[in-house]
Write a structure and sequence with these properties.
The protein has about 230 residues and is α+β, with helices and mostly antiparallel strands. The chain has one domain. The protein contains 7 helices and 9 strands; from the N terminus they run H-E-H-H-E-H-E-E-E-H-E-H-E-H-E-E. The strands form 2 sheets. Strands 1, 2, 3, 4 and 5 form a 5-stranded mixed β-sheet that branches. The chain has a 4-stranded mixed β-sheet with strand order 7-6-9-8.
Length: about 230
């Protein structure tokens, strides 16, 4: 069992909705994308975001008795909201001093921070911008063999920040559904409408249905994680 067990129970049990936080406190995991000038390409940034979200959950500090356990467990027991922000230079250096995990993919980096109340984020995080986190499409080529792939519903036109949160959800749901305890490498790719329809028809895929708080309607399937 890992910290993801409540998510596995909900997902494998077929839950399609999650009750609001019982204590009324809205919590989220901040995911900070390092976007220097010029920024890294979109695909490795998203792959780093997916890896960082899961890496924090699988970190020994998130296990029972660890210093992050209470914060992470309280968060996964409810809605696993994520808020992506962007940083560079000194702001990125400041974020690296906060409790969390950084994942590097090529020249891209993303850092997942320990989740907590959205109105109590550290000053170093609060000053970072949420909006405007967008990168142009790139051409990463086909996914490498032997790794799980997170496919994004390209027709939705999600911003990079929104997509980063969604692939983070996908990585966590996939690990929970498959009982993964060690961080795998994820590939992230966009799926055009035809390929998306093919993927949706595969019942074995792990699906992310959005809560509808930003950009897309509630219940929209934003991305799918599929086995190698």
């Amino acid at each position: 069992m890992t910290i993801l067990e409540p998510i596995a129970r909900r997902y494998l049990g077929g839950a399609r909705s999650i009750e609001p936080e019982p204590d009324g406190i809205v919590r989220a995991m901040p995911i900070v994308l390092r976007l220097e000038r010029p920024p890294a390409a979109r695909t490795p940034v998203l792959e780093a975001a997916a890896g960082a979200a899961l890496a924090l959950c699988l970190d020994p500090r998130a296990e029972p008795g660890g210093e992050w356990y209470d914060a992470v467990r309280t968060w996964v027991d409810a809605r696993i909201r994520k808020i992506a922000r962007r940083a560079r230079g000194a702001h990125w250096a400041a974020v690296e001093q906060l409790p969390g995990v950084t994942v590097t993919v090529g020249d891209a980096q993303a850092r997942a921070l320990v989740p907590g109340p959205v109105d109590e984020v550290p000053r170093e995080v609060a000053r970072l911008q949420i909006g405007g986190t967008d990168l142009p499409p790139d051409d990463p080529g086909p996914p490498p063999p032997g790794v799980p792939v997170i496919w994004i519903n390209a027709a939705l036109g999600m911003t990079t920040g929104k997509a980063a949160a969604q692939v983070g959800h996908a990585a966590m749901l996939y690990a929970a559904a498959r009982g993964i305890t060690e961080l795998p490498r994820f590939a992230v790719r966009d799926a055009d409408p035809d390929h998306w329809a093919h993927l949706v028809a595969q019942e074995s895929s792990v699906r992310v249905r959005d809560g509808g708080f930003t950009e897309v309607a509630p219940g929209t399937v934003t991305c799918l994680a599929v086995d190698p």
